[in-house]
Every structure is written in C-alpha cells, then in structure tokens.
C-alpha cells in the first residue's frame, strides 16, 4: 500500500503528492513528499504526528506555500501536513481586543474581518492574499507596517500546538499581559515548523487608525532615496511604512505596474503615516520635506484610496516583475541597522559590478530590511550569483545585521547561520529542538547548518 493509502486507512484526508506541494516560493528546487495530508482538525494533526513517530517518517507542516526559504519543503521526503483546511476565524472579541484563529486562515481574510469591526491586525507580509497565519507565526513574518507596529511575534498572545511526541499543548493566555513560566508561545513563534504544529492562535488586535496618508518620493538614484530614509527618522518621524525601490526595480515594473514612474527616476520611497487626527497630514508633509532635503526630484501624495491602492499593488508586484530584467534571481532578505542602509546599498552595487551581475534592491528600508536580488540568465551567471550572495550576506553581518530579516532560515540560508551565531548558541538551539522532537521527525534538516 502507498503511504497515502496507509494514511487514508487512518481516516485522514490523504493524497498522492502533487507538484504544488513539492515547491514553495524559495526557488530552491522541487522536493516531492511521499504523501500529502490535509488536516481538518487537531485530531488529524495528532494522528499524523503519532504515525510519524511510530513509523519514523518525517512530517513537514505547510500553510500557503509562499515561504521564501524552503521551510515547507519535504527535503527528506515523508509527509507534507497541510493546515490549509483548518481555516476558521474562531472568534473576534472587541471587549478583549483579541481574535482566535486556526492556522490555515489566509492573512488577508483576517485583516478584512477585523477591520470591518474597527480593529486592526497590523502584520502585513506582501503575500497576504495567500499566506496563512500558521506560516506567519512559524516564520514570525514582518511586512511594510512592521516599521511602526512590529512583527507577527508582537501580536501573538497564545498558541495551541501538537508536538512531535504527540502531546497537545496550550501555551500563553488571552489577556494582553502574562509572564508565567518560560515563554513557550514565543519559542514556537519563529521556530519555522520545527518544534510543533500550530493548530490555533490567540492574537492581539488594536484599534484601526482612522486616517492613513501615503506618498511616493522620487529620487535620481537609490543612494539619495536611502538618505531620505535617514532624514525622515532624523527628524523624529515614525511613518508606518517606508519602502524603498531602486532604479532596476522600477525598470522591472515599467509598463506592467498600475502606477507609472517618471522616466528620469532612479530611486523611490513609499512613505505612509497613520493616526487619528490632522497630525497625520502634517507628518506626511514633513516626511516629504525631508525627502526633498535628501535630493528628491518630486514628492506625490496619494489623492484618494484608489491611488493608494495602485501604489501598493505596484509594490506587491515587484518580486514577480523582476523576471523582466533577467529570467532568474537569487533573492536575499538581509537586514542591517538603519544607519548602515546607504552603506549596504552601495556595497551591493559594488559586489554586483565586481561579479558583472545586475542587482536590484527593494523593500522595508525603514527597518533596514532590504530584498537584495542578484539577477541572472545562465548557469554560469548563477554560479557567480552564489558567490556574490555570499558577499552580500557577509556584508550584512559585518554591518551588525542579520542573514534574514523576515523570510527565515529554512534550508535556503542554513549554510550561513554559523556566520551570524556562535557554536554555543547553535548547540543550545539544537538541544531545544531535541527536547521538543527527540527523534528529529518534524521538519528535519531545517535552520541548522
Ligand atoms: C510575493 C511575496 C511577498 C512576501 N512578502 C513578505 C513580507 O513582506 N514579509 C515576510 O515576512 N514574508 C514575506 N514573504 C514570505 C512568506 O509569505 C512568509 O514567510 C509567510 O509567513 C509564509 O506563510 P505560508 O502560509 O505561505 O507558509 P509556508 O510557506 O507554507 O510555510 C512557511 C513555514 O511555516 C511552517 N508552517 C506553516 N504552517 C505551520 C503551522 N501551522 N505550524 C507550524 N509550522 C507551520 C512551514 O513548515 C514552513 O517552515 C513573501 C513571499 C512572497 C512570495
């Protein structure tokens, strides 16, 4: 009997693996599992993990498959356990300012549901139309609004999870505060599906800001745009987003994006402020002045909601549009302290030039988290690209930053972890992994070198 057949016999929604479950958005290759199980309940998750323990077969949890570090890939075969069908918003509570969700809820669906009630769940990875909250928690996802509001971790009050041992745990609380015991909730957040399968989460909600104002600042080049970021913060402003696009990124979007850039532009910032009063427009105007001081050619404020939407649709298209410059890319998400942003951008250009490769940088400049892309067409260029990536990552570490600002280590970046973290810290994390998963069956091989 096939593995899927055995799992079906346990009354599970098991399928022969399809291509869709063999890959994610990391571009790290195809890893077909031996079977896919669509969990519909906590009991299903428990059955799969008990089966895995009994038969020593690896299990890889999966949400929307939008991950960019290969975390949801069954590198060692086994079972992909999809949580996509556990997609109920269990509760939205105004008095408690929390919501309770199953892991397969699509982020955008939650955002719409809470905003209808005047509440706000700020984490906003740009994949929000198809990533799930389980994946967001597992990767501690950020997004443009992380600049002002923080990342997923800052909104997780409690989780329920099934451990590889088969145990079911409820960690955390519904209250906004709570400090009892070790913070297992926060240990599971960002654990990339290696410690437990999250089956429910209690998330904090805040009041929805009544006013949002957005502007685009155009610069002759990306270095001036990066200087604009530093001037905005230097003036004591805290926008909710401050996203940078460099010249190649804007070239990639040309003719495709709903928002058209002027021809002479070589760098841009999307700056957004929010709040409840007139101060929002004042802050936007001041951010505009700071951009002009940094050398902006022009500053355009969105006049209405449809123009705002067009700006953000344009921003969300970048990753896909990049293929119009070169068919392939190696995409990194390093982060550096904000004060080193200009240095990082200059270093990327210099590294690209040395390896004769086109580069494109965009992303969450406000918190120093840049998506650095090395673009290539041939196998030979890919080899050069890998060497260049190595230098980009080392540069970020040397600047006091990190190998991954939000996408996670997964399998894509595990070779670099030991550059950022010392042997004792890695050994401690491996001991934590063993405490949760003594037989290394849940998402094995991820994170650690
Ligand atoms: C166009 C695009 C834009 C993006 N923008 C951003 C961005 O702005 N910010 C950002 O942070 N990321 C971004 N991402 C990356 C990605 O969308 C996020 O990492 C997202 O959180 C992944 O969610 P998912 O449901 O697709 O998870 P998957 O890719 O399915 O899985 C990701 C990881 O989570 C684990 N996992 C999934 N569900 C569970 C569960 N229930 N329990 C335990 N582990 C689980 C998996 O094993 C895997 O390790 C972007 C991706 C794309 C393609």
What would your notes on this structure say?
33% of the residues lie in helices and 21% in strands. The protein has 15 helices and 18 strands. Strands 15-12-14-13-17-18-16 form a 7-stranded antiparallel beta sheet. Strands 5-6-10-8-9 form a 5-stranded antiparallel beta sheet. A 4-stranded mixed beta sheet has the order 1-2-4-3. Strand 5 (89-93) and strand 6 (98-101) form a beta hairpin. Helix 7 packs across helix 9 (279-293). The longest helix is centred in the C-terminal third of the chain and has 20 residues, at 379-398. The mean pLDDT is 96. The chain binds flavin-adenine dinucleotide (FAD). Flavin-adenine dinucleotide binds next to strand 3, helix 4 and strand 10. The site of flavin-adenine dinucleotide has 36 residues, from strand 3, helix 4 and strand 10.
């Amino acid at each position: 009997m096939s593995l899927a057949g055995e799992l079906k016999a346990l009354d599970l929604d098991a399928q022969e693996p399809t291509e869709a479950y063999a890959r994610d958005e990391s571009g790290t290759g195809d890893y077909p599992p031996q079977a896919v199980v669509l969990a519909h309940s906590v009991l299903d998750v428990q059955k799969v993990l008990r089966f895995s323990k009994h038969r020593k077969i690896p299990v890889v949890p999966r949400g929307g498959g939008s991950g960019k570090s290969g975390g949801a890939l069954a590198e060692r075969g086994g079972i992909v356990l999809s949580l996509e069908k556990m997609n109920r918003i269990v509760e939205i509570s105004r008095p408690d300012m929390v919501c309770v969700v199953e892991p397969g809820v699509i982020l955008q669906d939650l955002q719409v549901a809470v905003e209808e009630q005047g509440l706000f769940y700020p984490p906003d990875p740009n994949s929000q139309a198809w990533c799930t909250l389980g994946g967001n928690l597992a990767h501690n996802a950020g997004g443009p609004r992380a600049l002002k509001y923080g990342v997923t971790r800052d909104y997780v009050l409690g989780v329920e999870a099934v451990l590889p041992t088969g145990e079911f745990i409820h960690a955390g609380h519904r209250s906004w505060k709570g400090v009892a015991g070790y913070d297992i909730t926060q240990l599971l957040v960002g654990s990339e599906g290696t410690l437990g399968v999250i089956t429910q989460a209690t998330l904090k909600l805040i009041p929805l800001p009544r006013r949002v104002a957005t502007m685009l600042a155009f610069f002759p080049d990306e270095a001036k745009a990066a200087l604009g970021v530093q001037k905005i913060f230097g003036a004591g402003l805290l926008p909710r987003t401050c996203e940078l696009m460099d010249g190649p990124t804007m070239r990639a979007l040309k003719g495709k994006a709903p928002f058209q850039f002027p021809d002479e532009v070589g760098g841009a910032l999307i700056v957004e402020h929010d709040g409840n009063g007139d101060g929002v427009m004042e802050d936007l105007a001041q951010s505009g002045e700071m951009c002009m001081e940094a050398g902006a050619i022009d500053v355009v404020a969105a006049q209405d909601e449809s123009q705002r939407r067009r700006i953000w649709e344009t921003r969300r298209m970048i990753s896909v549009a990049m293929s119009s410059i070169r068919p392939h890319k190696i995409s990194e998400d390093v982060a550096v302290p904000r004060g080193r942003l200009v240095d990082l951008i200059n270093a990327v250009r210099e590294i690209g030039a040395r390896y004769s490769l086109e580069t494109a940088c965009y992303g969450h400049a406000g918190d120093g988290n840049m998506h650095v892309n090395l673009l290539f067409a041939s196998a030979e260029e890919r080899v050069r690209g890998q060497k260049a990536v190595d230098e980009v990552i080392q540069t970020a570490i040397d600047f006091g930053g990190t190998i991954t600002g939000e996408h996670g280590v997964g399998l894509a970046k595990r070779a670099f972890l030991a550059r950022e973290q010392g042997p004792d810290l890695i050994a401690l994390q491996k001991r934590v992994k063993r405490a949760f998963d003594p037989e290394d069956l849940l998402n094995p091989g991820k994170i650690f070198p």
